[in-house]
Amino acid sequence: LAVLAVVLPMITRNGHREAVASEIKSNAFETARNIRCYYIKAEIRVTENSETPGCERVDRVEIWSKGPDKYRIDTEITGMENIGIPPTRSTTIQNGRTVASLGQDGTDIYYNCPPFDYFVGQFDRPYEMANELNALIDADLVDVMAEEVVSGEDAYKIEAGKDERTSLGHPDTAKRVVSWVSKENSICLKKEIYEYGELASTIEVIDYR
Asked: Is 12 helix (H, G, I), strand (E, B) or coil?
């Protein structure tokens, strides 16, 4: 009886966590299926490293997306003054295979304007909602760690990945990601990226719709 008193609560907790993990993946699938366009406002904080000594870089971004190849990103970068880089603003716009970047000096730089130029690949976005949702959908492991409130929304704190190496039992892996996803729709509200056990950067969503 004493053993059952210990084991049964553990089984119940594990069953609840598995049910929540299944709910998170199901919500991610439904959200990904229904999204056509979105707006995201986020803040990205980069931990001081050898390339930016004495700096606490902060990127504030606003993203408007209409599918995989139409978007606009407004970016403001601060916190680099210690290495001689003043606050900067820029706007990047992609429409199909054409990408335009407008810096604060007013200079337009165009990439990939056929037939004069050709770019093979994809431009990285600071936050890609489809990628975040697909990572949850494809994950073999979703470890539900806690329930917290992020940006005014109820959220699950999780780790997700393809195998057990993403679990808390292996905190010193080369790269580890801890995410907070909305209970309602599994949209990633916050993400902490660790490299060899040290916090490298944090992404937090301020607003989305």
From this structure: helix
